[in-house]
Structures are given as C-alpha cells and as structure tokens.
Amino acid sequence: MNKLSVKYEPVIGLEVHAQTLTRSKIFCGCATEFGAPPNSQVCPICLGMPGVLPVLNRQVVALGIRMGIATHCTIAPYARFARKNYFYPDLPKGYQVSMFELPLAEHGYVEIASESAPEGEKKVRLTRIHMEEDAGKNLHDGADDASHVDLNRAGVPLLEIVSEPDLCSADEAVAYLKALRALLIYAGASDADMEKGNFRCDVNVSIRPVGESTLGTRSEVKNVNSFRYVQKAIDYECMRQEAILREGGTVLQETRLWDEKRGLTVSMRSKEEAHDYRYFPEPDLVPLKIDAAWIEKIRAELPEMPAEKKKRFMESYQIPAYDATILTSTAGLADFFETTVAAYANAKIVSNWIMGDLLRELNQEGKDIEDAAIRPEQLAAMLKMIEAGTISGKIAKTVFEVLYREGGNPEQIVKEKGLAQMSDESALVKLIDEVLASNPAELAGYRSGKKKLLGFFVGQVMKQSGGKANPGKVNALLIEKLG
Predict the structure, then answer these.
(1) Phi and psi dihedrals of 10, rounded to 5?
(2) Within 10 Å of residue 436's Cβ, how many Cβ atoms?
(3) Is 3 a domain residue?
(4) Containing domain of residue 471, as a range?
(5) Which own/partner contact pairs does 297-300 have at CB distance under 8 Å and 24+ positions apart?
(6) Strand spans (E) along 285-414
(7) Do 436 and 462 lie in a common domain?
(8) Domain boundary among 296, 313, 337
(9) 10 Å Cβ neighbour count for 308?
(10) Which residue, 124, 73, 28, is CA-closest to 290?
(11) What is the spatial distance between Cα 337 and Cα 323, in angstroms, rounded to a whole number?
(12) How confident is the model over 430-456, as pLDDT tens digits?
C-alpha cells in the first residue's frame, strides 16, 4: 500500500497492559515467575474453583499508586473492582476481575518529544490507570493437532494504562510507548519486559480528513508486543482505512490482529460480534478506600523520574537536551553516565562515547546497559588515557571493543596488545622521513602550494605506525619538516 495521503490524518489511542513487579498474583499467593512448566503455578483461586474467595495483594495497589503519581494522575480516594464477563477458553472463571466506573487513577499525562508540538514536546493525556487480573494462555500444538490451556498467567496482576486519542502518527505512538515503559521501570512498578509479554498494548486507530475535529471510525489492533509491530500495524491500518474511504466504502468498527508474517492486520471480530461485558461490582472484594497519608508516603519513596533527571542533567552537566533525553531513557543508562562522569569529569565526552559507541553496540545486539561487560570506571579510565596521550582516539576504539565484550583494565589491555601511543620524537621523525621519501610527487605538490596535502602525509604516518602515532605530534613535526 502507499503512504497515507495529506488529505487524512491519523488519530491514535493506546491501551497498555503492564505486569506489576510482584512475586505473587493479584488475588492469591501463586508465583508469577516466567517460564515455569504449564499449569504449575495455579491454585483453586486462580483456577476459579467454586466457593473460593480472592484476597487482594496490597503491593499491586501500591505499585499502581506509584505509576499514577509518576504519570501525574489523580489517585482516587475510593476505587472498586468489577467483573468483566466474557467467555474464552483461557479465562477459567468466565469473567475477569478488572475495574470499570471507579478506577485507581485518572487524568494524568506522559510527555514525549514531538515535531507536531509547538515547543517540540507534547503531553499525551491519560484517561485512567486501573488494576486487573490477566487471563491464561492458549497453546496450539501442531504435533497432536490440539490446543491446550496454560493457566500460569491467570491472575497475574496487570496495570491497564489508557491514553486519550492524542497521538497523531506511528512515530508518536512509539515515542509514547517508550516513555511510558521508562516510567514503569523508573517507578519500580513493572520490569516492562516485552519479550516475556509483561508490556503489551491494544492500538486504536482511525483516520479523518485534515482539519476536522470529528473522530473517524476506529479499529482496535489487539495485543501488540513490540515497538516495531506497533509502528507497522498503525501504518498499515491508516493506509487500509484510507483505501476503503477512497473507494466509497465504510470503515467498520472492529477488533483486528497484527499478522507479522504477512505484514497486515486481519479481522478478529466486528462491532456486531463484540462482547457485552455486563460489568457489575465484584461482590467478593470490598471497595478500596485509599488513605491520603499512604499516597504521600509512596510519593516520598519514588525515585527521581526521567523528566526531572533530564532537567538536572542539562543544568548540572551542561549537556544538550538531546543528549539528556537519550541518557535518561533508562535508569541504568543514566546511572552509568553519572558514575562515569564522577570518575572522569568531562560530561560531554562521556556522553559522546555512551551515545555513540556504547549505544551502537547495545542496539545492534538488542541488549540493555546492564548486559554489557564494560563498567563506568573502565570507560572513565580509558578516557583518561586518551587525555594523557597514552592512546589515540583511534586506538581507543580498539580498547573499547575489548572492554565492551570482556571488561577488564584498560591499562592492562593496552599493555598486553601493545597499543600504547607512539610519542617519541626520534621515532616519529624516522617515520615521517620514510613517508616523505615514499611520496615524492605529493611532496613536490605540497611545496608548490597544495597545503591540503598535509592531511595526506599525516594519514600516511598514522598508517605506517598502525594508528599508534600521536597525531598531534605528527602534525606538528610534519609542519616543521615541510616548512
């Protein structure tokens, strides 16, 4: 399909489900450990057996409040669980315990960088944050042509975070998801591990003619669990809906699924087939009365959030907003930066190495900073060696590669691999004489006025030295020699 034309604009809202960072489920003591054998982390409560009663996990409420505060929400003094009724093979009770008319938190926002915003930053409004239990998982085994149900996830605690339809592009949607994921991790509310299904979203997409305020008919793409798939699903839906409108058709309100193999969304159910969830208050759980003192205690325990950290980095370390945004994108990266700067005080040079070499390696391998062998003290020691002239910037790239993959002592690496910078003038003069003697034509050109050839000679000397020659001294000695 072609790109969405300038006649239409997307309107996007996201419903994110994040598993809370608890060791037990929301209404029972069963473990939430990932990867356990099927149906090994279940009990009569999460299996929905008759006569059992749920007991609310207090820590889930605390983590929900933490996330509400982190996203500038109003925390409800009074909240209530509700039953959301529908049938599905992996829903053992025949209903899901969620929240409806009285959620935990409402009316917050998440800030993202956006080219469409006047000052480059946009507040994406949040409708609500509420708690609910997860369903189980259907397993389709091709070997015996049968489907099985694993209820380990049944009862796992989730925070559902619902945005207003404030997003105007797939890029903005991804930026919002990344910002929200960072907030969840900073606040300690969730590890937001997308590979484990701990951070996934439903994407609501509609399009409308540019300049109109009325919303178009939306499609909901369910359970998308990667930033790349969100981007692709939104782009596809926008183009699919425009193609329908161009042909004089009507976009149906429906639920769809993203098919990565075919690169398209497929219909799951239409509006006419959508469930009437028949919400009603959960009779087995008392309503929540949330004490203001508890909210303030949780607020006081929250760590520094990304926006506050970004502002402090810009002021304290005198680095640009772009650098500060990247460096505070995760708590681990921000800690790595600050620890390195504490050992090597040039913040901009530290930022350049982290944002360039370090993040390039991490992104290529799909790793987090915690997975790399290099430690802040090692990077700082390497930067000091560059500053002291012990190694050149080029040699530092080699040292960095070893540090990134293996860790270790930079000085020891330089010594063992013979990477120390050549600064001895007599040795450098000898190399320069050899280079000049080997390039008579270029030497004649330089002396006839082609001064740009100085760079050629510097490059040749560096090549002859295997990159070990001190480039500053080479440059000075060459000018003296040629002059």
Answers:
(1) -80, 150
(2) 18
(3) no
(4) 425-482
(5) 298/62, 298/65, 298/66, 298/69, 299/69
(6) 288-289
(7) yes
(8) 296
(9) 12
(10) 73
(11) 11
(12) 888 888 888 888 888 888 888 888 888
Among 269, 266, 240, smallest CA distance to 253 is for: 269
Q: Please give the model's pTM, rounded to 2 decimal places.
A: 0.84
Q: Same domain for 199 and 241? A: yes
**Residue 269 and residue 355 share a domain:** no
Residues in the chain: 483
Q: How far apart are alpha carbons 33 and 20 in whole angstroms?
A: 12
Q: What is the pLDDT of residues 371-393, one digit of tens each?
A: 999 999 999 999 999 998 888 88
Is there a single domain that holds both residue 60 and residue 133? yes
Same domain, 50 and 193: yes
* Same domain (yes/no): 172, 254: yes
Question: What are the percentages of helix, strand and coil residues in the chain, rounded to 5?
Answer: 40, 20, 35
Q: Where are the alpha helices (DSSP H) in 34-153?
A: 58-70
Q: Is 289 exposed, middle or buried (0-12, 13-18, 19+ CB in 10 A)?
A: exposed
Q: CB of 358 within 8 A of CB of 397?
A: no
d(CA 174, CA 196) in angstroms, rounded, equals 19
User: Is the same domain home to 442 and 392?
Assistant: no
Number of independent structural domains in the chain: 3
What is the residue type of 7? Answer: K
| Shared domain check, 71 and 20 | yes
